[in-house]
Amino acid sequence: MGKVTIDPVTRVEGHLRVSTETKGGTIHQARVAGEMYRGFEQILAGRDPLDAPVITQRICGVCPVSHAIASSRCVENALELPPPLSGKLLRNLILGANFLQSHILHFYQLSALDFLNIEGILSLKTRDPQLQELKGWVVQELDSNRILPAAPFLPRLKGDYPADLSWTQNLLSHYLQALDMRRKAHSMIALLGWKVPHVASIVPGGVTCTPTYGELEAFRGHLYILRRFIESVYLPDVMATAKQFPDYTRLGTGLRRFLAFGAFPEAEGDWLPSGTVDSRSFSSLREGEIREETAYSWYVDAPEQETSLPDPEKEGAYSWIKAPRYGGKACEVGPLARLIVAYHAGQPSVKEMVDDCMNRLRLNHSALKSVFGRHLARALEAQLLARRMEVWLDQIDPETSHVAEYVPRSQGSGSGLIEAPRGALGHWITIAEGRIATYQCMVPSTWNFSPMGGRKDPGPVESALLGTPVARDSQGLEAARVVRSFDPCIACAVH
Ligand code: NFE
């Protein structure tokens, strides 16, 4: 019996602790915990409903656009304020750009370093100018025999990094290129959202920006370069990394139960469908099945889950993250869930792309439910999305209004369900006497990083860690790879 704890898990937003117990060389118990409290839901009580999208965006600097849209949608539903189609399409473009930057960030800046033989690169004696440049920003000291990786390449956990240094060098050289691509995606958000990261143009009723033809063409120019990068660098890099680490196309499987709220509305409905997939069978989404449990979370148990009152002394609790459940069951959310739900709902472009990718990798579709399945799902979604954004862009008419007229009402209640880069996101509001009476957020990382629920059932990441083989002297790299495939954002998870 052994124990490995990673605390904090680095290269993630917020504070995450992962504790594992191993038996016979594999993980047989895992607990994940969010280690901070924030209280956004309390901050919102008593405010004007129009403040909600402004405040909830501050939950996170990585996915603020999703919070702005979820928040605007719940206010729209409460106040009966449906946005025009052009407002929805402009939101799709802003959210789409946010997805692209987030997925690229996740692979290159947050995850790829778990697979790169940085020490091997540093030990190479060569005059190759590209390698010299790489070394220049990877090393802490380059004087004598003591050459160490520098931040953000620290801490380095010991592990089975590949011997193929030319592959490592190639992937490492895309680290800086990826930063440049993210800058382009941020420029796209700023063109339509007016500022980044927290946008100013998304409001209940639609989008207040009125982009010119020139601004739309500037957006198109960035999008073209991003699409080329995704098709020719990002997706091939993820596929090549999956080939280098075949074990991780089998590890980290998890619950095999997937949930998506649907996203990117078009005239005929959501481009990415909502629904659940459990044992390969697809079901439509039933909002009434969504609940948050708090048996092992440091919150006061409340029957209607409308409050988030902290209880740091609560017996048995071990996390500041709550435990969302659908029909009483934990579900994985995120790009893989979206892909699997869309696949089983029969979305033709998703089906074609997934089938083609798995054929090229010579992998069975069951390999999708793995660490690399999640990385591949993100890259495939980015490719599909970049292509679809070109279609939405063609449909924007700069001459029309993109926002409904705001008519205040003193009471109402509503929900705003959408997809954020990391998965299903829901905001719920009740309004009384013109002010916010209650506000509730259920965030993707809350689903994935939930602790046990009321039936002592583990959360999705806790399940995915089970059965992961670990080296005798492991510092936790194997667990970190599984955990990071879910792209944790604990700032969001605890909100
Ligand atoms: Ni803070 Fe987020 C996304 C939301 S959290 S990054 O994507 O909502 O899972």
Sequence-ordered SSE layout with sheet pairings:
Blueprint: E1 2-6, E2 16-23, E3 26-34, H1 40-44, H2 52-56, H3 64-79, H4 85-111, H5 118-123, H6 129-138, H7 165-193, E4 202-203, E5 206-207, H8 213-244, E6 257-266, E7 269-278, E8 281-283, E9 290-293, E10 323-326, H9 335-345, H10 348-361, H11 371-395, E11 412-420, E12 423-432, E13 435-442, H12 444-448, H13 460-465, H14 477-484, H15 490-494
Antiparallel strand pairs: 1-2, 2-3, 4-5, 6-7, 7-8, 9-10, 11-12, 12-13
Helix pairs in contact: 3-4, 4-7, 4-8, 4-11, 7-8, 8-11, 9-10, 10-11
By secondary-structure content and strand pairing, the structural class works out as alpha+beta
Q: Major sheet, described briefly?
A: 3 strands, antiparallel
Radius of gyration: 22 Å
Shape: globular
- Following the backbone from N to C, one meets helices and strands in this order, namely EEEHHHHHHHEEHEEEEEHHHEEEHHHH
> How many domains, in number, for the residues?
1
CATH architecture: Orthogonal Bundle
The helicity comes to 40-55%
Instruction: Please name the fourth-level CATH homologous superfamily.
Output: Cytochrome-c3 Hydrogenase, chain B
Unreliable stretches covering 5 or more consecutive residues: none
**CATH T-level topology:** Cytochrome-c3 Hydrogenase, chain B
Number of strands: 13
The kinds of small molecule bound in this structure are: NI-FE active center
Residue fraction in strands: 15-25%
Largest sheet strand order: 1-2-3
N/C terminus separation: 35 Å
